[in-house]
Amino acid sequence: MREPNPAFWRGRRVFVTGASGLLGSHLVGELVAMGAEATALMRDMVPRSLLVRLGLLSKVNTVRGAITDHQLLQRILVEYQIQSVFHLAAQTQVTYAQADPIETLDVNIAGTYRLMDACRLYGACTEIIAASSDKAYGPQKNLPYTEESPLLASSPYDTSKACTDIITRSYAVAFGLPTAVTRLANLFGPGDLNFDRIVPGTARSVLRQEPIIIRSDGTPQREYIYVGDGARAYLTLAEDIQAKGLAGQAFNFGLGHPITVLEVVAAIKQAAARPDVPVEILGQAKGEIDAQWMDSSKARKQLSWEPKWTFAQGLAQTIPWYEEYLSSG
Asked: How many domains, the chain?
């Protein structure tokens, strides 16, 4: 099983947008551990984020500002002499995107093309990796999704990720930038504070022994990936983009099989040893895609990437973190 190469990252000047998010925090932690010189862009200070709780802010260059600020992005690239870029900044809450699509489209789409163009003008980045999503594929008859599947996103959030995907890859074709795109399954793990998501929300309910509310009928199928495997995916792709000529390409990353909402809930109850917490199925969710999962064989073959954690193993790392987090007030 391939692990990131510390020699590649030691002393490397890396720019991470969305650094205080779930994946951003873990990615920054990996970079710091390998001796990279990381610069983190944060719009807001989130005191309870993993980035803060792990004491990582004191180990990176921190810039406060918006991903849509083109002049700020140009300044960061030049001032910190950035070599590698990980673009994770996004409005990631699907329900918020439905309520305020303009904000989501502005941040996710404009933020992407402003960053890509700042990289074009700067001209010294050797790898630029942007976060797309399995949501960019939208509803499809043929599953699992492969990288050749069309992007059929229709909701505001999904559409914003499809645009991020296309814009990023277009800068490789049109301008020769060393860009590539990750399409990850549903991330979960320590540090996810978006309690509208199924894993954080269910974990909180289970640990508080409150009824677990399921908005759907419990049958939609989704694929998941532990955040540690997600961070490894980004690092692995970045290490190979030049060596293997991967500019302009997209890669799927996931466990390779879907599970239902009810199976997720059951697994969390088991991991927390709270089998008796009641479940309330509302069956009110609208516009849900019945099934989504991906074929990640391209990443396995071309990058030698493999998931290190099963869903159950990831939960074994995640539930104790939420227990400590919720008990800390």
From this structure: 1
